[in-house]
Amino acid sequence: MSDQQVQILDFEELLRYIERRLAESGKYVQRDAIIAILQAEEAFLMEKGVLQEVKE
Fold it and tell me: How far apart are CA 50 and CA 4, in angstroms?
């Protein structure tokens, strides 16, 4: 077994955080656009082996 650390991220919490940060900087981005960006980032990180899907 390896010494990998598993950290679970809540997608909705991340989405609200990004929306709040954008609002604080005076920007508005539609939620669908943020979701599309996050999904693309997730796919990229999974392809690079940085993220792995964890089965419960």
Answer: 11
